[in-house]
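User: What would this chain look like folded?
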Amino acid sequence: MGSRLVPPDFTNPYGHWEDYEFVKLNSAFLSQRIARSKWEEQIRKLIECRNALGIPWGWKDPRTCDLLRDYLEFFDNPPFIRCIRSATQIEASIIKAYRWTPTNARLGRLRREQELDRYLPRRNLFEVDFTELRTDRRKIVESLVQFCGLAEATEQRISSAINFIRPLAEP
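Assistant: Here's the prediction, encoded as structure tokens.
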């Protein structure tokens, strides 16, 4: 999921677990600091570099929701993991991270959810509910391992992933 992640900060003291390179490019494009052609070129290069690793890979970046239609052009039937959280939790996170008003946070959440509902493929999709993830960690981790085809996932790695997930209530 990336080797260089966005570091923890006041909005998330445990870390965001977002791939820095995707975040940087997506942020630059969405804020119009780079042109579409430059974004496409850089994203294509980044994807090629990741594919060259010869191992399963992916990234987490909420901005991908806003660019999902564009990203689908780079892949042939990619698998997706969609994380489901309550509207209240999502909006609180947006307000804290971006200092948006409650109304703008709601509109931003709705816009992203509409993009996901519109462009996410119905097949090759795994949905993870954060509440279930925090209460039945083993079941979800084992299902994710199977969905991702990670045959090399040993019991030690699965246990490590399970123990990594914080069973705390989200802010």
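Residues 1-60 form one domain. If you want, I can go into more detail on any region.
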